[in-house]
Amino acid sequence: LVAGAVPAAAQTFPSRPITMIIPFAAGGPTDVVARIVAESMSRSLGQAVVIENVSGAGGTTGSTRLTTQAADGYTIMIGHTGTHAASVALYPNLRYNPAADFTPIGLVNTNAILITAKNALPANTLAEFVAWIKANERTANNAHAGIGSVSHTTCLLLNSIIGVNPQTVPYRGTGPAMNDLVAGQVDYLCDQVVNVAPQVRAGTIKAFAVAQQTRNQALPNVPTTAEAGLPAYQVVVWNAMLAPKGTPAPVITKLNEALRAALADAGVRARLAELGADLPSDVQVSPAGLQAFIEAEIAKWTPVIKAAGVTATN
Ligand code: MLT
Protein backbone atom coordinates (compact mmCIF):
# COMPACT_ATOMS: atom_id res chain seq x y z
CA LEU A 1 0.00 0.00 0.00
CA VAL A 2 1.38 3.42 -0.97
CA ALA A 3 1.66 5.75 2.03
CA GLY A 4 -1.46 7.89 2.22
CA ALA A 5 -3.43 5.68 -0.18
CA VAL A 6 -6.99 4.84 0.83
CA PRO A 7 -7.57 1.07 1.26
CA ALA A 8 -10.09 -0.27 -1.29
CA ALA A 9 -12.41 -1.50 1.49
CA ALA A 10 -12.54 2.01 2.94
CA GLN A 11 -13.40 3.49 -0.50
CA THR A 12 -16.44 1.23 -0.90
CA PHE A 13 -17.56 1.54 2.74
CA PRO A 14 -20.23 0.63 3.67
CA SER A 15 -20.98 -2.39 1.51
CA ARG A 16 -22.83 -4.38 4.20
CA PRO A 17 -24.86 -3.65 7.37
CA ILE A 18 -23.22 -1.89 10.32
CA THR A 19 -23.70 -3.09 13.91
CA MET A 20 -24.11 -0.37 16.55
CA ILE A 21 -23.44 -1.66 20.08
CA ILE A 22 -25.61 -0.07 22.77
CA PRO A 23 -24.12 -0.91 26.16
CA PHE A 24 -27.49 -0.78 27.99
CA ALA A 25 -30.88 -2.48 27.81
CA ALA A 26 -33.34 -1.79 25.00
CA GLY A 27 -35.92 0.92 25.65
CA GLY A 28 -33.62 3.06 27.81
CA PRO A 29 -32.20 6.51 27.02
CA THR A 30 -29.07 5.42 25.11
CA ASP A 31 -31.05 2.90 23.07
CA VAL A 32 -33.84 5.39 22.26
CA VAL A 33 -31.44 8.09 21.02
CA ALA A 34 -29.38 5.51 19.11
CA ARG A 35 -32.41 4.13 17.28
CA ILE A 36 -33.56 7.61 16.20
CA VAL A 37 -30.10 8.48 14.85
CA ALA A 38 -29.35 5.01 13.39
CA GLU A 39 -32.53 5.04 11.34
CA SER A 40 -31.47 8.25 9.59
CA MET A 41 -27.86 7.05 9.20
CA SER A 42 -29.12 3.85 7.53
CA ARG A 43 -30.83 5.99 4.90
CA SER A 44 -27.84 8.19 4.16
CA LEU A 45 -25.30 5.33 4.21
CA GLY A 46 -27.49 3.03 2.08
CA GLN A 47 -26.92 0.16 4.53
CA ALA A 48 -28.81 -0.90 7.66
CA VAL A 49 -27.36 0.27 10.97
CA VAL A 50 -28.44 -2.55 13.29
CA ILE A 51 -28.66 -1.99 17.06
CA GLU A 52 -27.16 -4.68 19.33
CA ASN A 53 -27.81 -4.23 23.05
CA VAL A 54 -24.80 -5.56 25.00
CA SER A 55 -25.64 -4.58 28.58
CA GLY A 56 -23.95 -5.17 31.95
CA ALA A 57 -21.47 -3.65 34.40
CA GLY A 58 -22.72 -0.09 33.93
CA GLY A 59 -22.10 -0.20 30.17
CA THR A 60 -18.48 -1.33 30.46
CA THR A 61 -19.27 -4.81 29.08
CA GLY A 62 -20.51 -3.45 25.73
CA SER A 63 -17.70 -0.90 25.59
CA THR A 64 -15.10 -3.63 26.16
CA ARG A 65 -16.78 -5.66 23.41
CA LEU A 66 -16.20 -2.87 20.88
CA THR A 67 -12.45 -2.90 21.55
CA THR A 68 -12.30 -6.56 20.41
CA GLN A 69 -14.01 -5.87 17.04
CA ALA A 70 -12.33 -5.31 13.66
CA ALA A 71 -11.44 -1.64 13.05
CA ASP A 72 -13.30 -1.48 9.74
CA GLY A 73 -16.35 0.66 10.61
CA TYR A 74 -18.77 -2.27 10.54
CA THR A 75 -19.04 -2.31 14.34
CA ILE A 76 -19.45 0.99 16.17
CA MET A 77 -21.07 2.01 19.46
CA ILE A 78 -22.70 4.72 21.49
CA GLY A 79 -20.83 5.36 24.73
CA HIS A 80 -21.67 8.02 27.29
CA THR A 81 -20.53 10.00 30.33
CA GLY A 82 -20.52 6.80 32.37
CA THR A 83 -18.80 4.37 30.01
CA HIS A 84 -16.27 6.87 28.62
CA ALA A 85 -15.51 9.24 31.53
CA ALA A 86 -16.72 8.18 35.01
CA SER A 87 -15.66 4.54 34.44
CA VAL A 88 -11.97 5.51 34.56
CA ALA A 89 -12.11 6.40 38.26
CA LEU A 90 -14.74 3.80 39.17
CA TYR A 91 -13.19 0.65 37.74
CA PRO A 92 -9.60 -0.03 38.80
CA ASN A 93 -9.51 -2.98 36.37
CA LEU A 94 -11.28 -1.29 33.43
CA ARG A 95 -10.25 -3.23 30.30
CA TYR A 96 -10.12 -0.16 28.07
CA ASN A 97 -8.87 3.40 28.09
CA PRO A 98 -11.74 5.61 26.82
CA ALA A 99 -9.27 8.25 25.60
CA ALA A 100 -6.93 5.85 23.76
CA ASP A 101 -8.71 2.65 22.72
CA PHE A 102 -11.43 4.10 20.45
CA THR A 103 -11.66 6.23 17.33
CA PRO A 104 -14.18 9.04 17.97
CA ILE A 105 -16.87 9.65 15.32
CA GLY A 106 -18.78 12.51 16.96
CA LEU A 107 -20.88 13.62 19.92
CA VAL A 108 -24.54 12.69 19.38
CA ASN A 109 -26.42 14.71 21.99
CA THR A 110 -26.48 15.91 25.57
CA ASN A 111 -29.18 15.03 28.09
CA ALA A 112 -30.25 16.83 31.25
CA ILE A 113 -30.63 14.72 34.39
CA LEU A 114 -33.84 14.82 36.40
CA ILE A 115 -34.52 13.73 39.96
CA THR A 116 -37.53 11.42 39.66
CA ALA A 117 -39.58 9.31 42.07
CA LYS A 118 -42.42 6.83 42.12
CA ASN A 119 -45.87 8.42 42.29
CA ALA A 120 -46.57 6.87 45.70
CA LEU A 121 -43.60 8.63 47.32
CA PRO A 122 -44.99 11.10 49.91
CA ALA A 123 -43.12 14.15 48.55
CA ASN A 124 -44.22 16.56 45.86
CA THR A 125 -41.34 19.03 45.74
CA LEU A 126 -37.57 18.72 45.86
CA ALA A 127 -37.52 20.19 49.39
CA GLU A 128 -40.05 17.58 50.53
CA PHE A 129 -38.01 14.85 48.83
CA VAL A 130 -34.82 15.96 50.63
CA ALA A 131 -36.66 15.87 53.98
CA TRP A 132 -38.16 12.45 53.11
CA ILE A 133 -34.86 10.84 52.08
CA LYS A 134 -33.12 12.16 55.20
CA ALA A 135 -35.86 10.66 57.38
CA ASN A 136 -35.97 7.37 55.42
CA GLU A 137 -32.32 6.86 54.49
CA ARG A 138 -32.13 3.29 55.82
CA THR A 139 -35.15 1.94 53.95
CA ALA A 140 -35.21 4.11 50.81
CA ASN A 141 -33.92 2.60 47.60
CA ASN A 142 -32.31 4.29 44.64
CA ALA A 143 -32.51 2.52 41.27
CA HIS A 144 -29.65 2.82 38.77
CA ALA A 145 -28.30 1.20 35.61
CA GLY A 146 -25.20 -0.42 37.12
CA ILE A 147 -21.97 0.83 38.65
CA GLY A 148 -20.61 3.66 36.53
CA SER A 149 -23.83 4.30 34.60
CA VAL A 150 -24.98 7.90 34.58
CA SER A 151 -27.97 7.11 36.77
CA HIS A 152 -25.50 5.70 39.32
CA THR A 153 -22.89 8.47 39.24
CA THR A 154 -25.35 11.35 39.03
CA CYS A 155 -27.39 10.03 41.99
CA LEU A 156 -24.12 9.45 43.90
CA LEU A 157 -23.51 13.14 43.42
CA LEU A 158 -27.07 14.01 44.53
CA ASN A 159 -26.87 11.72 47.56
CA SER A 160 -23.54 13.21 48.61
CA ILE A 161 -24.88 16.79 48.28
CA ILE A 162 -27.92 15.86 50.42
CA GLY A 163 -25.69 13.81 52.78
CA VAL A 164 -27.44 10.43 52.54
CA ASN A 165 -26.27 6.94 51.59
CA PRO A 166 -29.37 4.82 50.75
CA GLN A 167 -29.51 1.28 49.36
CA THR A 168 -29.09 1.08 45.60
CA VAL A 169 -30.76 -1.33 43.17
CA PRO A 170 -28.81 -2.03 39.95
CA TYR A 171 -30.44 -2.75 36.58
CA ARG A 172 -29.04 -3.38 33.08
CA GLY A 173 -30.25 0.03 31.95
CA THR A 174 -32.71 2.69 33.06
CA GLY A 175 -35.29 1.27 30.62
CA PRO A 176 -35.99 -1.61 33.07
CA ALA A 177 -35.26 0.64 36.11
CA MET A 178 -37.92 3.08 34.87
CA ASN A 179 -40.42 0.22 34.46
CA ASP A 180 -39.94 -0.64 38.14
CA LEU A 181 -40.18 3.03 39.17
CA VAL A 182 -43.51 3.30 37.32
CA ALA A 183 -44.64 0.07 39.05
CA GLY A 184 -43.61 1.54 42.44
CA GLN A 185 -40.99 -1.18 43.13
CA VAL A 186 -38.19 1.34 43.71
CA ASP A 187 -38.30 4.82 45.26
CA TYR A 188 -36.22 7.17 43.13
CA LEU A 189 -33.99 7.46 40.09
CA CYS A 190 -31.71 10.12 38.60
CA ASP A 191 -32.35 9.68 34.90
CA GLN A 192 -31.86 11.31 31.51
CA VAL A 193 -34.60 13.55 30.19
CA VAL A 194 -35.25 11.35 27.13
CA ASN A 195 -36.37 8.52 29.43
CA VAL A 196 -38.16 10.80 31.90
CA ALA A 197 -40.15 13.16 29.66
CA PRO A 198 -42.63 10.58 28.25
CA GLN A 199 -43.36 9.20 31.74
CA VAL A 200 -43.83 12.61 33.38
CA ARG A 201 -46.14 13.66 30.54
CA ALA A 202 -48.12 10.44 31.07
CA GLY A 203 -48.29 11.11 34.83
CA THR A 204 -46.72 7.75 35.74
CA ILE A 205 -43.83 9.18 37.83
CA LYS A 206 -42.88 12.44 39.59
CA ALA A 207 -40.00 14.70 38.53
CA PHE A 208 -38.82 17.07 41.27
CA ALA A 209 -36.21 19.07 39.36
CA VAL A 210 -34.01 19.22 36.29
CA ALA A 211 -30.29 19.54 37.07
CA GLN A 212 -29.48 22.20 34.50
CA GLN A 213 -29.46 25.99 34.53
CA THR A 214 -32.61 26.50 32.51
CA ARG A 215 -35.86 24.55 32.39
CA ASN A 216 -36.00 21.79 29.80
CA GLN A 217 -38.00 22.41 26.62
CA ALA A 218 -39.73 19.02 26.96
CA LEU A 219 -40.82 19.52 30.58
CA PRO A 220 -41.40 23.27 31.04
CA ASN A 221 -43.34 22.78 34.29
CA VAL A 222 -40.46 21.04 36.10
CA PRO A 223 -38.30 23.54 38.05
CA THR A 224 -34.53 23.69 37.82
CA THR A 225 -32.55 22.50 40.84
CA ALA A 226 -31.67 26.14 41.56
CA GLU A 227 -35.35 27.14 41.53
CA ALA A 228 -36.16 24.13 43.74
CA GLY A 229 -33.50 24.97 46.35
CA LEU A 230 -30.55 22.69 45.42
CA PRO A 231 -28.40 24.87 43.12
CA ALA A 232 -25.26 22.78 43.73
CA TYR A 233 -26.78 19.86 41.83
CA GLN A 234 -25.99 20.58 38.17
CA VAL A 235 -25.26 17.74 35.79
CA VAL A 236 -25.71 17.19 32.07
CA VAL A 237 -24.62 13.96 30.39
CA TRP A 238 -23.85 13.01 26.79
CA ASN A 239 -23.88 10.24 24.19
CA ALA A 240 -20.91 9.76 21.85
CA MET A 241 -20.47 7.65 18.72
CA LEU A 242 -17.23 5.67 18.66
CA ALA A 243 -15.43 3.12 16.48
CA PRO A 244 -12.61 0.72 17.40
CA LYS A 245 -9.10 2.15 17.61
CA GLY A 246 -7.37 2.23 14.21
CA THR A 247 -10.51 2.59 12.07
CA PRO A 248 -9.35 4.21 8.77
CA ALA A 249 -9.92 7.97 8.48
CA PRO A 250 -12.05 7.73 5.26
CA VAL A 251 -14.43 5.34 7.07
CA ILE A 252 -14.67 7.68 10.07
CA THR A 253 -15.37 10.58 7.68
CA LYS A 254 -18.28 8.66 6.10
CA LEU A 255 -19.72 7.75 9.51
CA ASN A 256 -19.28 11.33 10.74
CA GLU A 257 -21.05 12.70 7.64
CA ALA A 258 -23.93 10.29 8.24
CA LEU A 259 -24.12 11.36 11.90
CA ARG A 260 -24.14 15.03 10.87
CA ALA A 261 -26.85 14.34 8.29
CA ALA A 262 -28.94 12.64 10.99
CA LEU A 263 -28.54 15.60 13.35
CA ALA A 264 -29.55 17.98 10.52
CA ASP A 265 -32.62 15.89 9.61
CA ALA A 266 -35.84 17.71 10.54
CA GLY A 267 -37.55 14.50 11.69
CA VAL A 268 -34.63 13.52 13.94
CA ARG A 269 -34.42 17.04 15.38
CA ALA A 270 -38.15 17.12 16.13
CA ARG A 271 -38.05 13.72 17.84
CA LEU A 272 -35.00 14.62 19.96
CA ALA A 273 -36.53 17.99 20.89
CA GLU A 274 -39.77 16.29 21.95
CA LEU A 275 -37.70 14.06 24.25
CA GLY A 276 -35.76 17.05 25.65
CA ALA A 277 -32.33 16.13 24.25
CA ASP A 278 -29.94 18.89 23.22
CA LEU A 279 -27.80 18.82 20.08
CA PRO A 280 -23.97 19.05 20.16
CA SER A 281 -21.96 22.02 18.88
CA ASP A 282 -20.25 21.79 15.49
CA VAL A 283 -16.89 21.22 17.23
CA GLN A 284 -18.27 18.48 19.52
CA VAL A 285 -19.68 16.57 16.56
CA SER A 286 -16.24 16.40 14.91
CA PRO A 287 -13.92 13.44 15.69
CA ALA A 288 -11.14 15.72 17.03
CA GLY A 289 -13.63 17.75 19.05
CA LEU A 290 -15.06 14.57 20.59
CA GLN A 291 -11.57 13.31 21.48
CA ALA A 292 -10.81 16.56 23.36
CA PHE A 293 -14.28 16.50 24.95
CA ILE A 294 -13.82 12.93 26.27
CA GLU A 295 -10.41 13.81 27.72
CA ALA A 296 -11.92 16.86 29.46
CA GLU A 297 -14.83 14.80 30.79
CA ILE A 298 -12.47 12.15 32.25
CA ALA A 299 -10.57 14.98 33.98
CA LYS A 300 -13.86 16.43 35.26
CA TRP A 301 -15.38 13.20 36.58
CA THR A 302 -12.29 11.54 38.11
CA PRO A 303 -12.09 13.84 41.19
CA VAL A 304 -15.89 13.71 41.63
CA ILE A 305 -15.84 9.89 41.79
CA LYS A 306 -12.72 9.81 43.99
CA ALA A 307 -14.36 12.27 46.41
CA ALA A 308 -17.40 10.00 46.59
CA GLY A 309 -15.03 7.16 47.61
CA VAL A 310 -16.53 4.38 45.46
CA THR A 311 -14.90 1.76 43.24
CA ALA A 312 -16.28 -1.17 41.31
CA THR A 313 -15.20 -4.41 39.68
CA ASN A 314 -16.23 -5.69 36.28
C1 MLT B 1 -29.46 3.55 29.59
O1 MLT B 1 -29.52 3.67 28.37
O2 MLT B 1 -30.05 2.64 30.18
C2 MLT B 1 -28.73 4.59 30.39
O3 MLT B 1 -27.94 5.43 29.62
C3 MLT B 1 -28.18 4.03 31.61
C4 MLT B 1 -27.49 5.00 32.51
O4 MLT B 1 -26.33 5.26 32.27
O5 MLT B 1 -28.07 5.43 33.51
Automatic annotation (TrEMBL):
Keywords recorded for this protein, A-Z: Signal
Pfam families, sorted: TctC
Keyword Signal: yes
UniProt record similarity statement: Belongs to the UPF0065 (bug) family.
PANTHER family in alphabetical order: BLR1237 PROTEIN (PTHR42928:SF5), TRICARBOXYLATE-BINDING PROTEIN (PTHR42928)
UniProt protein name: Tripartite tricarboxylate transporter substrate binding protein BugD
Taxonomic lineage of the native organism: Bacteria, Pseudomonadati, Pseudomonadota, Alphaproteobacteria, Hyphomicrobiales
